[in-house]
Amino acid sequence: MEATGTDEVEKIKSKFMSAWHNMKYSWVLKTKTYFSRNSPVFLLGKCYHFKTEGEYRALHSFQSSSAGALGRYGSNFDKINTEISGNVEEFRKDFISRIWLTYREEFPQIKGSALTTDCGWGCTLRTGQMLLAQGLMLHFLGRAWVWPDALDMDSSDSESWTSNTVRKLTASFEASLTAERDPRILPRPQHGPARRSWDVTEMRNEVYHRKIISWFGDSPLAAFGLHQLIEYGKKSGKIAGDWYGPAVVAHILRKAVEEARDPELQGVTVYVAQDCTVYSSDVIDRQCSFMDSGKAGTKAVIILVPVRLGGERTNTDYLEFVKGILSLEYCVGIIGGKPKQSYYFAGFQDDSLIYMDPHYCQSFVDVSIKDFPLESFHCPSPKKMSFKKMDPSCTIGFYCRTVQDFEKASEEITKV
User: Could you state one GO cellular component term attached to this entry (predicted)?
Assistant: First the structure.
């Protein structure tokens, strides 16, 4: 009887701590994000337009908001090789397909500490993981890939979330697009109980989808998991519980990729710019370096550029530069945020940045088990933040599969 009582106390305590963490470390009180239907939305090199009636009505429960003219971007981005991708439903599917990595609790204890959670201190490591994950998704899946189950997120199993109350917030995609008048919104078609059978390509893609997520699992053996990143951070004088800046995280990611032993990762390398300068010869040398097997071969490269966009505050003169970067097909996002809060910036609309927020405490997921739940690794709702609030310290990421891609990316970045 006493043991049962103790178990109940522990359950109540666990629920209380989950609720507390989600109040303290998340965006649960700010559930709606508003998008204009009159301005383009850029997401990691793709451009979406919500302007036409047909595209607008395809949106699941979006509302609407005022705003700027589409033509204002013509002069800035007409030379950028950006794919025009169309409607709101496609944007939702694309955004949700990105890998979302957040605070976790109850994971295996971090070596050298008593910590079993990164709530309150691990946000920059998490945004660094998201940027690296996007690079690996481009490498193994390509930019056109989307998660087939992305639009089923609102009907996902609540057990994959930290608490049932927060589960309700996954409907925050119900937010957006206001116009002069509220148009009639058509309900999104319901999916049947079973999707069609996957073909060989889809099966292959799902294997890599799961494999990439597993590399970021919260266990000591995961190549890019929190435990390993903290070990590499010790050489920079950082320990678990410390604040990690975007530049430090860039070097930690480089080391993690260098030390990764999975054969699948031997074809990827990371280059970190020195003093905001990318030396072409050094990048090409990395791409043409030998594999561990001793065989020569061109490696894909993820280029990380730590920069500071101003002094105490971000200089608004850099706004167009940041927009240009996020419009490039080679961009894998920005490790940034606002002071003391790191976000993963993946796009923009008008003068607001679109981001994924790691400040959401979720329960540990054992990614070593077969068919582990995927829902908590995909963000159901984009968030927006005014560029003016951006912290000046950030790290910009690019992915280039070949030397030719790097040379082309260099040309595009020079235009920006």
Answer: cytoplasm
- Rounded distance, CA 181 to CA 286, Å? 55
Where residue 112 falls (left for φ over 0; alpha for ψ -120 to 50; beta otherwise) is: left
- What is the pLDDT, as a whole number, of residue 88? 86
- Both tokens of residue 104? 């976790």
Q: Catalytic: which of 123, 331, 379, 394?
A: 123
> For the chain, which residues make up each domain, given as ranges?
2-53+79-154+200-415
Q: Is 353 left (phi over 0), alpha (psi -120 to 50) or beta?
A: beta
Taking only the tens place, the pLDDT of each residue in 277-297 is 999 999 999 999 765 555 557
Taking only the tens place, the pLDDT of each residue in 37-50 is 889 999 999 999 88
Running DSSP on this structure, what letter comes out for residue 107? P
Consecutive H or E run containing 205: helix 200-215
Q: Which of 357, 378, 391, 400 is catalytic?
A: 357
Residue 64 DSSP symbol = -
Q: Does the annotation count 251 as an active-site position?
A: no
- Please tell me what DSSP assigns to residue 194: S
The Cα–Cα gap between 97 and 290 comes to: 33
Exposed/middle/buried for residue 321 (C-beta within 10 Å: 0-12, 13-18, 19+): middle
Q: What's the CA gap between 256 and 233, in Å, rounded?
A: 10
Amino acid at 362: Q
Lowest mean pLDDT among 176-185, 208-217, 248-257, 283-292: 176-185
Q: Closest by alpha carbon to 332, among 141, 148, 136, 82? A: 136
In one-letter notation, the amino acid at residue 24 is K
pLDDT tens digits along 83-127? 455 588 899 999 999 999 999 999 999 999 999 999 999 999 999
Active site residue 21: no
User: Which residue in the list 139, 227, 251, 359 is annotated as catalytic?
Assistant: 359
What residues contact 219, with CB distance under 8 A and at least 6 apart?
107, 108, 225, 227, 366, 367, 368
Q: pLDDT tens digits for 222-238?
A: 999 999 999 999 988 99
Amino acid at 64: S
